[in-house]
Amino acid sequence: MTNNPARTWVKSSYSGGNNGSCIEIAFGEPVIPVRDSKRAESGPVVEFGREAFAAFLGSVTTDR
After folding, report:
1. Exposed end of the chain (fewer CB within 10 Å): N or C?
2. Which helix (H) or strand (E) holds 58?
3. Integer-rounded Cα radius of gyration of the chain
4. What is the DSSP secondary-structure string of 14-57?
């Protein structure tokens, strides 16, 4: 997929100061676009359906 400049991208608050080694996502669309923050402008964007993204989050989330 291509990068849409109209999207508002957000980075996780857990990303910290690791020199951009993180992913960014954009909300408010029928799909969840994901991109690598190190290649935000030139890299690819992968789009996930909402159900698939929710399943992914459920598999990587830990209770504290």
Report:
1. C
2. helix 50-60
3. 12
4. T-TTSTT-SEEEE-SSSEEEEEEGGGTTTS-EEEEEHHHHHHHH
Contact 10, 28 (CB under 8 A): no
Cα separation, 50 vs 30, whole angstroms = 7
Report the candidate in 17, 21, 31 with the shortest Cα–Cα distance to residue 7: 31
Q: What is the pLDDT of residue 28?
A: 80
CA distance 25 to 43: 13
CA nearest to 24, candidates 14, 9, 8: 9
What is the rounded distance in angstroms from the CA atom of residue 7 to the CA atom of residue 35?
Answer: 12
Contact (Cβ atoms closer than 8 angstroms) between residue 5 and residue 22: no
